[in-house]
Every structure is written in structure tokens, then in C-alpha cells.
Predict the structure of Panacea domain-containing protein.
Amino acid sequence: MASVLDVAKYIIENLGETTTMKLQKLVYYSQAWSLAWDGVPLFNEDFEAWANGPVCRELYNEHRGIFTVQSTSFLAGRNITGLFTDAELETMDVVLHDYGNKEARWLSELTHKERPWRETRGNTPLGERSNAIIPKELMLEYYAGLLADG
């Protein structure tokens, strides 16, 4: 199974230079839609319900202190050739197609409207820190439910 860093590398290689906030959201939506469409996660790492939306701590630890990332600098030595199945590639490509042209702030605000982030944060006030883990089961239920509604 790929790691969150492998997914991040794929996204950067296919999107180009981006902000770390946008990268976090695109990786989150790749995980969410993999759960909804295929019933399995792309990677094992979890997302936490941070103030600006879902953040994967393992990915954050790699880009901490960096505002923008590009494929030539971020995770440059990581080889992802042949790592993903066709279904996983399709999921990430659809996420890039549907969300890749959106601004980081827009993606963050979208996650704030969605049940997994809101429910995981509970009564935590907006802007306050939280490291509560967004359960993969909740992500699967919510995003698969969007498919059923649409």
C-alpha cells in the first residue's frame, strides 16, 4: 500500500507547484474518494481536524515551514513508479481534475462545510487547535452518501 507521502508526490508531479495547504486538501480528497468509490483507503495515515481543515500530520512533518512545494524539491527522491493500481490512479486523477483548479482557501472552506471535519471537531470553536482524528469510517460513510444522493 502507498503512503500519504507517495500520494502527495503523485499529486505534485501531476499538478505542479502548489501550496502546502492545497496539497493537504487534495490528498484528503484523494483518500475520501478512494474510500467512497473503492471502499478502501489509498494509505493508512490519518487526518486530523485542524483549524484550517483536514491535515495529515505525517505529510505536515515533511513540509513544515514550507509554503509552496514542487516536484523537484518536495519528496524528490521518492520513487512512485508502478506503486498505484489503475483504480487508485483514476481516483487521484479525478480529484486533480475536479479540485486541482480550486484555491487552497476554497478547498479549506469546503471541508469546513462537510460532516467529517465538522463532526470530528465537535464543539471546538472555529480557529481553535484540534488534533482529533477524522475516522476513515466517517469519511467513507459521508462521501459514499454523496454518491447515493447525486
Notes: Residues 20-38 form the longest helix (19 residues). The first strand starts at residue 18 and ends at 19.
